Structures are given as C-alpha cells and as structure tokens.
Amino acid sequence: MGPFLESLSGSAIRVLLRLAFAFEPLVSTVLSVFINQRLHRYKEGGIVSGYKTRTRRLGRYHYQIEIHLDLTGLQAAHLVVNLLPPQLRRWHYD
What is the mean pLDDT of the chain? Predict the structure, then answer.
C-alpha cells in the first residue's frame, strides 16, 4: 500500500472514531428501543404478561438497564428452562 492510501485510510479511521464518540450519548435510547421491541414480541407471543424497562446513561460507555417482567408461574419456568445453561437446570421438572 502506498503512502497516499495509508494516509487516506488513517484519516478515514479517525473520522469514523470521532463520529462514534459523537453519537455515544444516544446509545441508551437505542438500547431502550431494541429491548422494548424484543419484549413486545415476547408479550405478543405470551412469553411474558407485561414489562417495564428503564435505561440510564451513567457515564461514557456505562449504562444501567432495569427490566421488570410480569410473569405467571408457567412463564417463569419457561424462561428459566430456556435461559439458564443445562448445568443449572437440573432441578427442573417437566
């Protein structure tokens, strides 16, 4: 690669990094939208009865995400079986 292309690629990387840092405060909004879309699908499918989410930006690259789920006993058992690794599910009864 010639010196011109190296200079051009270095400049492009610097511009992309600046753009990424400029949009970083919007990540909490993007996270909220993504989580709410996924939970809405779960609610429509009957996997959860209801939900509330809250995403806060604590600082640069630090976020707090709270998810409150309304579940029946059967829904809770379904989530445990599907979310936990097999080693932690040995107590589950079908």
Answer: 81
